[in-house]
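sorry to bug you again but im stuck and you know this stuff better than me. what follows is a protein written twice so to speak, once as letters and once as structure tokens for the fold. id like you to explain what the token line says about the fold, in plain words if possible. anything you notice is useful, everything is just below.
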Amino acid sequence: MRKRKKPILLLFKYLLLSFVSFFTLLPLIWMISTSLEPDKGLESYSLIPKEVTFRNYVEAWNYPKLYDPNVTLGTMFLNSIIVSSIITVLSLLFDSMAGYSLARKRFPGRNFLFWLALSTLMIPFYVVVIPMYLITMKLGLINTLTGLIIPFISSGFGVFLFRQTFLSIPLELEEAARIDGAGDLFIYWKIMLPLVKPTIATMAIFKVLWSWNMFFWPLLIIQDYSKMPINLGLTIFRGQYVTKWGLLTAGMIIATLPIIILFLTLQKWFIRGLTAGALKG
């Protein structure tokens, strides 16, 4: 009886998972379907396109050319690539350096600095956004890509994750390198970083995902279309009276593809990075 019940239970589990997965992917399916239909300016509820065309993608990429013929959604896509790449690279560098120092170095106030960095995870972004805006304005970074980058080149979560990972690495490796005459920079760059590749990949996914999806902060400090990231640029497809649903969904697909490609590339490191150092205090 038990052997007969197992296939039935397994079938039920797969059906349940398939049902949940379908409803989870339903918005994405609708978005793809709408982007492949000719844009009629009307919202469609069809999950299967009646007429397939890729014209929406071409028009969305070259839209809107409102005030400058050289500014399109492609320009905003490039802005997002630049901002996300710089934020990710600098964050990985600074967070890993801070995490290594807090994990391996002995200096006064080390624990205080660690808890101070960790406390930033408990403060909502909307609480500090006004001071951030005033500081950015004083530095003359309003309406610049630099103003999108500088406030986010480090994070408490990144420092915490790298510190915990470095603590899980045996101290004997570092001591052996010092006996051979290696300095701090050599140990950090050549020995420690290669051992924390899963954490680097995990933080890279988080950083790219977060910086790519920024909306509220660019909405506050960016006014020129030529400097808008793609998520803010997608609002140009929604007018006061008419929304270009075909172009909007095509633009959303364009904005989503880099994140999907990145995750598929680094997915094997993702779980390993999340669990790295979890058992080390």
User: Anything to note?
Assistant: The domain at 73-275 is CATH 1.10.3720.10 (MetI-like fold). The CA atoms of residues 133 and 221 lie 8 Å apart. The mean pLDDT is 87. The radius of gyration is 24 Å.
